Amino acid sequence: MSLFSCLLLWTLWAACSHGAMDECIDESGRPQRCMPEFVNAAFNVTVVATNTCGSPPEEYCLQTGVTGVTKSCHICDARDPRNYHGAGFLTDYNTQPDTTWWQSQTMLAGIQYPNSINLTLHLGKAFDITYVRLKFHTSRPESFAIYKRTSEDGPWIPYQYYSGSCEKTYSKINRGFIRTGEDEQQALCTDEFSDISPLSGGNVAFSTLEGRPSKYNFDNSPVLQDWVTATDIRVTLNRLNTFGDEVFNDPKVLKSYYYAISDFAVGGRCKCNGHASECVKNERSKLVCNCKHNTEGPDCNVCKRFYNDRPWRRATTDNANECLSCNCNGKSAECYFDHELYRATGHGGHCRNCADNTDGPNCERCLDNYYRGSSGQRCLSCSCNPVGSLSTQCDNTGRCSCKPGVMGDKCDRCQPGYHTLTAAGCRPCSCNPAGSTQECDFHTGRCQCKENVDGFNCDRCKLGYFNLDPQNPQGCTPCFCFQHSTVCESADGYSIHKVTSTFDRDEEGWKGQQRDSSIVPVQWSPTTREISLISEDYFPIYFVAPEKFLGNQLLSYGQNLTLNFRIQHRDARLSAEDVVLEGAGHRVAVPLIAQDNSYPGEETQTFVFRLHETTDYAWKPNLKHADFQKLLLITVTLGSLLHDSSGAGYLDSVSLVTAHRGSGTPARWVERCTCPQGYVGQHCGQCDLGYRRSQPELGSFSSCEPCNCNGHSDTCDPVTGFCNCQHYTAGKSCERCKDGFYGDPMVGSPSDCKPCPCPAGATCAVVPRTKEVVCTNCPAGTTGKRCELCDDGFFGDPLGENGPIRACRACSCNNNIDPNAVGNCNRESGECLKCIYNTAGVFCDRCKEGFYGNALAANVTDKCKPCSCSPYGTVDKKTTCSQVTGLCQCLPNVINRDCSACEPGFYNLQSGKGCERCNCNPIGSTNGQCDIFSGQCECQPGVTGPHCDRCEINFFGFSPSGCKPCDCDPEGSESAQCKDDGHCQCRPGFVGARCDMCEENYFYNRSTPGCQQCPNCYITVFHAVLIMICHTTYSTFFYGCLHRHKADADQIEKIAKDANDTSTKAYNMLKKALDGENKTSSDIDELNRKYVLDIPFYATFLSCQYSVICF
After folding, report:
1. What is the DSSP string of 37-84?
2. Where do the Laminin EGF-like domain residues begin and end (predicted)?
3. Closest CA to 710 of 752, 749, 748, 754
4. Which of 290, 450, 582, 761 has the highest CB neighbour count under 10 A?
């Protein structure tokens, strides 16, 4: 089907339905779809063009399509109505003979791609667009596009593209189509109307539904319904159609190319979604639908305020889809559509602002926190207390659901036993039953406490009380603490104990006593095991308790005294003082029937009396609790009265509750006090260290006050107040310095009392006028103002002026002083200064220099004697010696006590350098001694020299026996001196040891003194000579041995000399050895003489060679 046939069908459908759709209600009064008439929505609507010719005036030429033909050119001038072609001519009414058109500037002015021109048509309201038609006064463009907007401020949406170059210009496929299921809101492109022919009068008509697969199901296609909706239409002219001759830029040619449109038509209906048959101008001259079917809005696009029972929908051929009113049960005129409600119930009208406190989608129920009253019409407020209610919603009777502990129809008050209405309900009263008397205040929660109890919950004792006890009507027991503290607590380690009398064996110490204190015996019945008293007049008589019920009964305070008692006659008269307690100067009494006790009778009854001062217990007179406790502390009387005339009273048993230390049921009423400063003890009954009783006569009741020790002690006797004085003070309050010290202790500083500047603790005093400190009782041996001096005959440093203090002591001079002399010793050091009897030393305990002996000897003659040291024999010529032994200090080799002699073998004492060794030759001297002055040794015969170490002249043979005379023959010897071997020096021709013989072949001539040579006797005596030589050689052998022995003797002598052994015994031993050697030498000489003479004996030896070795 062609575009024009489709357009014709759509137009015919619109025209045929025009008459049938005028009314929105059918003949039977049912709503039906209705539509405004089909119109040209663009007629006389202003089009906004972005380019129009005529300003300034310009020439344009008509396109003929034939080359070379002269073109017909005209002027477009906005100032000339005849030649003006503005945008208003696009939508005016025109006929074929009288055509008007809009025209753009020519290509000469730059009108060509990529420069575009927009023609924008504002419809003023949404329309359902059927078609858009353009009639061109020139040739149709090569490319242009149609756009729409669905709202006046919405984006421009492509509607249709026309182009001879779809892909190049719009990136669209030429003559594309939409398949079923594809997006039906996409714009298509076609080249069907893009040819340059015709040069004028060509039409382009765009049908909005052409090519859309769902167009035959339009009522059920929201996509197409939205696709045909437009509030604005824009035509964008992108590219002119040309013959291609514009490339030569011929102005005539360029002036012939321009856009010109004679008609711009938009066919459609005012969009009212089937709920209006016409559109009208509103008070602001804005086009709107005249809505029916309970709809409203510019396009009848919403339900009216009270018509929201189902969702708004477009009207269709089958269903007008009118908006239905909400069901609010007459309680509201407002509602809104509730999707969830509609899905759940099929009715979406949700009422709002329901009247009469109603609520619900249809105002069908009461508001939350309301209930329907008995009238059933109005809803009444539950008025549930928001704090006390579990919910603000009540039941049908208006009763609220309360939180725990809350009560009342509105849950606005606490139940009994609860208090303080909170978000969690009422809190249970937390009253401690031991300390409270009733429930708490339901507003504040504060409990009603017993007399001695405090705290919000009555859970603690008041200050000055302790032991919160449910059995105690006052709740807590007052602290006793001897009235020194108001802070106490129950003491640990105490258990309940009872002091009892059961009279099982005897009266147990009970006695009777009259008012005048006279004693009346009690009767004990072994049968009934009770004691009794008989009254014979109207004067009262009492049972008086024994010791175990008396004394310190403080631990019974607040406990019960129980009596099992009966009387003989029931009509016995009672008094106000039936039971009496006395102690500590107080006396209280109570009637027998007090404290809820019954009247006594003939049967044994139990009477219980609480020992407490509270008026509830009727003890008279009324005492303060401290006085009542004091009474129990020193109980002297506990009595029960009997005053029936001519009657009797019988006491079956007595029990007093108390406490004692040990295991068992704890006695919590026993106190342990927290003592204030200055007090200690369980009951603060003692004074702490550093405190004393201000009134000792009051005992533990006395207050404690700090010890008055003037700052010189932290402690004192707690009873007497005597201070334990420090800082060298004394007195009860440390008000004076103790002996040996002085100062003013009342200043109160540790240095108040200073030691007396006196030794050995001597006392001192201060001279008032001069304030000088003077010692008053110097120790023995001292003197001076401060005992700073030692008496004559004493020494020390009593004030320590030169070091540590040293007491004066008697000088110790060992009786070596004159006791009648003054200044015998130094008073500070004790050094003895006047020693006698040749003594010296600090204590005259030694001999003075130059003396020796026992300085401490009792006998004067046995004391010190002169040393008498030799000045030559002592070191440095000192005259001193050992003071004990008397030995002088001798120089070397000096002997004797007084160094007056040389040692044996030494001499020259007078040198003053010590004695020199004699060095006497042990062989040549007789005894090794020498002259003590010259040093000359005593020599053996023939020996000489200071040391006797050589033979005298003309002597030889140095030996222990001395030297022998040479005895040289004066005629035959050259000299009287012989050689060491004793041989003399012979003159020529003489031979022999003494040169007393003539030489071989010589003879002695008496006529001519001397020996003369023999003339011819040599051969004769030859053999005799040989024998003599042999003997001589043998003698030489023995002579050599002699010299060897002599060398040994010299060595022995040297050893003896080195050892300084000068004893006579050693010398004699040496001498004996040397004498032996001399004897050996004499024996050898004798052998020589013997064998020399025995020539024939040795003749045989001369003919042989032999050697002699001396071992």
Report:
1. PEEETTTT--EEES--TTSS-EEEE---SSTTSPPPEEEE-TT-GGG-
2. 382-428, 429-478, 707-755, 811-866, 867-917, 918-965, 966-1013
3. 748
4. 450
Q: Given the structure tokens 């533990």, which residue do they identify?
A: 700
AA identity, residue 146: I
Contact 1053, 1061 (CB under 8 A): no
CA dist list (Å): 1097 to 349, 511, 1030, 1037: 195, 164, 11, 18
Max intra-chain CA distance, the chain: 237
Q: In whole angstroms, what is the distance from residue 346 CA to residue 753 CA? A: 114
**CA 897 to mean position of chain CA atoms:** 86
- Specify the pTM: 0.41
3-state secondary structure of 1026: helix
Residues 6+ apart with CB under 8 A from 535: 541, 642, 643, 644, 645, 646, 647, 648, 649
Which tens digits make up the pLDDT trace of 48-77? 999 999 999 999 999 876 655 567 899 999
Cβ burial of 441 (10 Å; 0-12, 13-18, 19+) is: middle
pLDDT, tens digit (0-9, with 9 covering 90-100), for 152-209: 889 999 999 999 999 999 999 999 999 998 999 999 999 999 999 999 999 999 999 9
Contacts of 275 (CB under 8 A, 6+ apart): 24, 34, 289, 291, 292, 293, 295, 300, 314, 315, 320, 322
Which domains are delineated in the chain? 1-35+273-325 (2.10.25.10), 37-64+72-271 (2.60.120.260), 382-428 (2.10.25.10), 518-656 (2.60.120), 707-755 (2.10.25.10), 966-1015 (2.10.25.10)
What is the spatial distance between Cα 923 and Cα 1081, in angstroms, rounded to a whole number?
A: 15
Measured distance CA(540)–CA(645) in Å, rounded:
9
pLDDT tens readout for residues 751-771: 999 988 877 778 888 888 888
Using CA atoms, how far apart are residues 1013 and 993, in angstroms rounded to an integer? 19
Decide: 152 and 142 in contact? Cβ < 8 Å.
no
Q: Which two tokens stand for residue 1007?
A: 């006529």
For the chain, give the mean pLDDT.
Answer: 85
Instruction: Kindly report, residue by residue over 83-133, the tens digit of the pLDDT.
Output: 999 999 999 976 666 789 999 999 999 998 889 999 999 999 999 999 999
From the list 889, 908, 907, the residue with the least C-alpha distance to 899 is 889
